[in-house]
Amino acid sequence: MRIEVFPPGRRSFFVFAHQDAPAVVAYLAVPPTLSARTGMTVVMHGKLRNAAEYLESWIAWSVDNDQIVVAPRFDSACWPGAAGYNLGNVFSGANGRGECLPESRWSFTVVEALHQHVREGFCLEDERFALWGHSAGGQFVHRFLLFKPQARLRSAIASGCGWFTVPDLRVRFPYGLRHPSLSFTPANVRAYVASPVVIMRATLDTTRDNDLRKTRGADAQGANRYARAAHMHRIGTAIDPRSPWRLVDVPHVGHSGIRMALAAQEWASHRSGHQRERLAPLA
């Protein structure tokens, strides 16, 4: 029998390996109120692969809200570039080029299995989890729901995305769903826009910085992250006006993972039912 002890209210880590996928380091925070009723939130890092830093922004919230928070690190050596991480490692090459890889090797699959591993290890009753990511991590989040529609998600917040895979069967992957190796259908699209997605954008995230993708496909979604978030939300709600998708503005914030984490925590604690919302300015 293997026993691991994780001190409450502090950052810990363990190495998680699933089937034939490369192992990831999983950082986590466990609340002192840990019980079978404790919930779970999974936090996805951005392009810098700085999962440990991301977790630090969630430790106090973990303690206050009786949540285990897990932040897996997909290192650039084993999960290279956007293809390996935020596009899910679905294809061996960039932008959908190359062979379609086995589902067991997808980064999406690793996160789904990681949740189950942690849930079973801590004997949690709730089968669901919340998923949040910023920047490249936000891209991971919105695509996770596309490629893992059966995942047991309570909610998903995609924050500060540089660009999107829109739910449009006419647009070529990775900017849309048209690809000879993918089999998305209109029914899949309708199910996707019925999923619990929050698209969170910062009102000052309007610059075309060096990390922003500037291809023709990305620029068709808007000139910057703020505009592209609106584009994604507009497409989703046009498919189904009853879609629960939310577009949430965070005032007076730029492309900041820490400040967007705080906004996501506020949203999780005080979410409401309007389709487009604006949080109070962060101090």
What does this structure look like?
With 283 residues, this protein is α/β, with parallel strands linked by helices. The protein has a domain of 193 residues: Rossmann fold, CATH 3.40.50. Strand 8, helix 9 and strand 9 form a beta-alpha-beta unit. The radius of gyration is 18 Å and the shape is globular. The protein starts with 10 loop residues before the first strand and ends in a 5-residue tail after the last strand. About 2% of the residues have low confidence.
Structural class category? alpha/beta
Strand line-up of the largest beta sheet:
1-2-4-3-5-6-7-8-9
Outline the biggest β-sheet: 9 strands, mixed
What is the radius of gyration?
18 Å
Average residue-wise pLDDT? 94
Total strand segments: 9
Give structural attributes.
283 residues, alpha/beta, Rossmann fold, nine-stranded mixed beta sheet, 9 helices, globular
Topology of this protein?
Layout: E1 11-16, E2 24-29, E3 39-44, H1 51-56, H2 59-65, E4 67-73, H3 81-84, H4 107-121, E5 129-134, H5 136-147, E6 153-159, H6 186-193, E7 197-202, H7 216-219, H8 225-239, E8 246-250, H9 257-270, E9 276-278
Parallel strand pairs: 3-4, 3-5, 5-6, 6-7, 7-8, 8-9
Antiparallel strand pairs: 1-2, 2-4
